[in-house]
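User: My collaborator and I are trying to settle a disagreement about how two of our proteins should look. Neither of us wants to argue from intuition anymore, so we agreed to look at predicted structures for both before our next call. Could you fold the first one, then the second, and keep them clearly separated?

Assistant: That sounds like a sensible way to settle it. I'll keep them separate. The first protein:
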Amino acid sequence: MGTDILEKGLLILGFKLEQRQVGGLLAYVRLLEKWNQRYNLTAIRNPAEMISKHLFDSLSIGPSLGEGRILDVGSGAGLPGIPLAIAYPEREFALLDKSAKKTRFLIQASIELGLSNVSVVCERVEAYHPPDLFDVVVTRAFAKLADFVVQAGHLCKPSGYLLAMKGAFPEEELKALPATFEIVDVCALSVPGLNAQRHLVKLRPSRAGDH
């Protein structure tokens, strides 16, 4: 199922993955498909569509991840966290979601896929206060950039950054950003098989006046 589509897309994205990682990505799609029948994790039902709209979309931000520990906020069905954890087994990922049914899926998926580099947290983002902050805080789910900064900014190390996955260039949202974070970059993403605009917004804690 979808091996050719997946391998071609990975090549376009510049990923050289081992067969077990490719197998892991396909196994994740199968798990999504299976759990979706009961839990409604994603509106996308077609496995081939899941490969482009979920796997490739998530993996397209790989080159922007940088170093260190990564928190996926509002992870939902594990996007972008699980595909990235499969592609970067040496990196540590925490998946955060407030929904108990979604975190049940995330725990089960990480066990079945053998992802020892993944931990799952069931908590509201603004109420989550881990002992160690994260180098990278990423989201694909927040409606507005300002909300992401206000609710998740406290989880980012002073030397770290926030990554927000967006569709069209979010001009108005960028203007509404709180002063606590500053824009590092907004780059267009190219996602194989996806005929839609995608952008990645990279923010860091504001250096001005060192809050």
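The second protein, kept apart from the first:
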Amino acid sequence: MPDDLTDGRIVIVGASLAGLRAAEELREQGFTGSLTVVGDEPHPPYDRPPLSKQVLLGVAPADSTGLPMRRDPKAEWLLGVRATGLDTLGRRVLLDNGESLPYDRVLIATGTRARPWPNPAEAALDGVFTVRTREDAAGLAAALDAGPRRVLVIGGGFTGSEIASACRERGLEVTVTERGPAPLVGALGGTLSKLAAVMQRNNGVDLRTGVTVTRLLGDKAFTGVELSDGSQVDADVCVVALGAVRNVDWLADSGLAAGPRGLACDAGCRAFTMYGIVTDDVFVAGDVSRFPHPLFGYQLLSLEHWGNAVIQAEVAAHNMVSPGPLRRPHLALPTFWSTQFGLNIKSVGVPTYSDHVVIAQGSLEARRLAMVYGYRGRVTAAVTVDMAKSLDYYQHLIETGAPFPPPPGAADRAIAAEIPIPSDVPDPSVLSHGPTVALTGYLPDRRLTVV
């Protein structure tokens, strides 16, 4: 590795939002060496949130979601090329075209892909879609333009719910199936998921909860599904929204701490080896990372959020070109938003890291509220529905470790917030959607037995 950290060879694997922002920040921080960005898709980095919203509504074409560059990172872009391995000893990124790229430091920003339908023959039927890439969204938008009689969405998480919302806005008949008790329950817990269920049904969604899809029907084209309760639903289009898979398969022989929940790193974005030793030349950012957070018991956080990808990429880039004492920690609080069925849902913190919740402002009946989550007497998250201006206040409560339930003044009531009720966060294994923010360590009260 060169003595001067602003020189040498840096390779970024992942032509993603995180990859682009990291490349820009490296130049911003004075990096003058060679910079190469590898991406398995043929396109320059583009924005994914519009794919399940504007593109499906037909108000924006899929190829219009390219990300603007803040500055030209003067990088060599290897697009349509897949990384197949990482030789950490020889410091080389292996590529599917048989070549390899030498590096002094590497940033892994390979993100996630859509979890496919488990039966490949059924998944290959005409009319069966996942939504992750531009091509996915363009294909589904074209299928919706054709005016199907019914769209079936498998999975009631954020992506599935946003797709169902877009279909209803287009006037299409929609059925949503969810193995858990309600949509969004994995991300928001039991109380708010009840509101999500009411909103879907009030907007004409045929919502089936507590059921699984056992089979996709059709010869060459999709015609419907069989459900675990014995019923059958006829539909022309099926959207599989079963969550995301971290793109870590290519790191299987790298010796890094990469697994189904992502690649583990320290708060400075430096990757861990499989033995928990921190590396000094492998960094990670975005959806593929798992990083410790002091506000959540130093457990490893796994996030699928736009804002986190940007902030973490900037921290990783800064640390790649800075000597040890000048490195910064990535301690941003998780925040995310979703618009569906006319509701604007915003969240800060980790709602699943909770044992109780309380409605601090508004009400479920009014469909306008702020719900605060607590764990062992401390505020850990807040979710607002059509009340986003309140979120900054609750973010401050989380950051300062404020007591839960929040004190008077944190609520629009004269006394302290209502009586806390259990947050009712289900075991993720009973859901067909997962949380977009997950703690992937062990809760402090779960003791490990060393055999």
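Some points you might bring to the call about the second protein. DSSP finds nine helices and 30 strands in the chain. The mean pLDDT is 92.
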